Structure formats: C-alpha cells, structure tokens
Amino acid sequence: MNTPKQPLSRRMFLRGAGVTMALPWLESAPVWGDEKPKKGASEPPVRFACLFAGNGFHSREWWAKGEGAQMELGKVLEPLHPVREKMLFLRGLYNEEALIGGIHSCQTGNLLTGAHLAPGGEIRSGISCDQMIAERSKGQTKVPSLVLGTEQSIAAIHKNYSMIYSSHISWSSPTTPTPLELYPALAFDRLFREEVGKADKSVLDAVQDDAADYRRKIGSADKQRLDEYLASVREVERQLEQAGKAGRLQGWRPTLSKPNMPRPADGIPQDIDQHMRLMCDIMVLAFQTDTTRVCTLKLNNDHSSLRFPNLGVDYMIHHLLSHTDGDDWLKVNRLFTQQVAYIANKMDRIQEGERTLLDNSMILFCSSMMTGNHNNDQLPVIMVGRGGGTIKTGRVLDYLGKPNRRMCSLYLSLMDRTGLHLDHFGDSKERLAEI
Questions:
Q1: What is the dihedral of CA 118, 120, 122, 128, to 10 degrees?
Q2: Which of 110, 114, 351, 394 has the most beta carbons within 10 angstroms of its beta carbon?
Q3: CA–CA gap between residue 193 and residue 361 (Å, rounded)
Q4: pLDDT tens for residues 220-272?
Q5: Any idea what the Cα angle at residue 399 is, between residues 396 and 402, rounded to 5°?
C-alpha cells in the first residue's frame, strides 16, 4: 500500500507553549496540507467514522422505506429524520466469517476487518478498514486516527473466543486491537497538545497570541469561521472542566450504589449520555479542524454491562435488556441513534466551501448482530454523509438475496472515496456498485 508523504502546512496551525491546534477549512487558506495552492486542489478531505452499538436493535423498529424527503424511518432511526436526505439505509449486508463461531466475540471482532478470528483465547483478526485509511493519510494530519470508547475492554473467554473481540472494532494489526481512549480529557488533549496528560492551561489561552496574529491576515468571512471554531473549542473545554468538578466516576455505571474506590481525577462523567455526547463533540471537533480524518466511536461493548438511569432503565444491564425487545430496549436504542443524529446535525451546520462537513464525511452506524438474539445473517447498517459529494444519499439499498452483500464490499467502496484503492479487502474483491 502506497502512503503519500505530504508535509503539513504550518499556516494551517495555531501554536503556543506545548500546544498545536489545527485550523478549520478557511477560504483564505483553501488548500488542505499544501503551501502552494494548485488549481482545483481546494477540496476539503473526506472523513470516515464508524459508530458501533453492541447487541443489535429492536426487531420491529429498525427499518426505512421511501426516498429523499419522503423517506420514512422506524422508531429506532427516527432521531435521524432531519438528515434522512443525506442517509443510506443498507439492508442485507453481512460478515460471512462472523457466522462460523460463538456469539458476541466472534460476531464483533471482525466487523471492520472481515477476517477469520482465532478461537481458543488466541487474539487474531485483521487490520480494520479505519486503520487502513489512517495509514494511507499518515503524515497529512496530526493524529492518524481517533479510537474512542465509553466502556472498558472485557478480559474473559466466551464460547471459546476472547472477549477482547467484543471490546474492539478497530485493529492496528491482526494481533493488536487499537487501544480505546475512554477519557474525554485525554482524547481532547491528544488533538491539541504535544504531550497528553493532565491539562494545566487552557488550549485557547496557549494559542491566543498566534490566533490574534492569524486573524489579522484573513478575510471577514473567515474571521467569523475562526471565531465560531474557537468558541466551539472553548465550549468543549468548559464541559471538561465541569465534568471534573462534578467528581463523578469514570465511564460505565457501576453495580454499586456508592463508589468503593477513590474518585478518578480525570473527571469522566458518570452518566453515560454525558460521556457519549462529550465524545461526539470531540469527534466533530477533530474532523472540523482536520486534526484527524478517521475516527471510531464504540458507544458500548458487545455483551455490554452499561445501565441507563438517565432513561429510567436501571434495572437491567444492556446485554440482558437486548433480549427483551420491549419498550425500554427501544429507549436505549434511540439513545444510541441520538448520538449519531447529534453528530450529523452538528456537522451539517459546519460549512466547508460549497458543501458541509457532513457532505464531506462518511459516518457508519452499525452493530455486529441484527437483534439481541444474536442473528447476524444480516447486519443493521446505515451511513450518513456524502463522501465529498460522490455518494447519492436519501436511498434504501436492499442487498438481501444478491450475490454481493459482504460488508467488506461496502468498505472497498468507501475507501475509494478517501483515495485508498485496493484490489481486495477482508473477504471481498468487489465493490457495491450502487455506492
């Protein structure tokens, strides 16, 4: 695989003591990663993201029909109604290799790889499509990829397969899952700081002199874009500060009513909806600044132990709830979909030339099984965004009964939009012609 080496443009960064902050798309500096603008070279890059929800969805409410503004959505997907014209509903795709082994682990560990998984406690999958894209763009962004999560990895064996497979969808090598960042503060620091650690100074305070100097050199429209961007950075900093002051436990909700361990200093919100939302903000910020073009956000593990007191659903962990297929399960499903909708709507309000950040992105939302009953002969998959204006959205694409319905065929089609053209990936040598 050829990896282009393009130097980063210094004018596209604000710098301060220990801080490097990438800038958003600006008309005054129209070329991504190039000091000398070339004719026709001012297109914003295409970003790729995958959001994962474990244990599938409600059996009767994951559906879509119609086209464009007339598209109708099942109750799980209703939060995406405002962006339905920029969405693809993909029915019938599956991972053949995920059918061979036990439930949960064997169904999740190759979701983005299509690879055969090693059983018996051994760890072996394949390099995931997000990391293939990240490797291709290495040297063009400060951070090759963000791999975010809200629930700790599981170290156990289930049905003869390691639960590490249930905990990771991003793989840097066949034997190495990409580490999840669970701490919003550390994820945020990674975007802007030279060394990731406890912040002792506001990022904006560190670059304020450079920002003021840069502002004098750009046009009025770009000044407004820069001011809006800096305000969004400040808002994320404010949320992180408040999360720390709240003194809550990190990550998942524990089974104890009171903590039996010292409070973590990093201040990750206890409430899962706050944790998810903060990670969503960081992802959008990373894409908006071109600090990275690749992100996975694992909203929970497959075989998840999350609870949802914010929804009044605190009597059963996520995994067990997925087997009920009732109203409370639908509430939890919609919470996950709301995160995708939040990202999509926020990105669609960020203008990048003639298109929006959402138009210049491809956001997958999927699970490793259709429902909590472990059926994965077809997978729940949607995509939001237009891949730089190259993908016709507002459609339902049904692959059931068709010879080419592999998830890896979808990945080949999407990787093409990022400039990565492969002869094969995972278990596929074909692209999805409709995409």
A1: 30
A2: 110
A3: 25
A4: 888 888 888 888 888 777 777 666 555 443 332 322 233 232 322 345 567 89
A5: 150
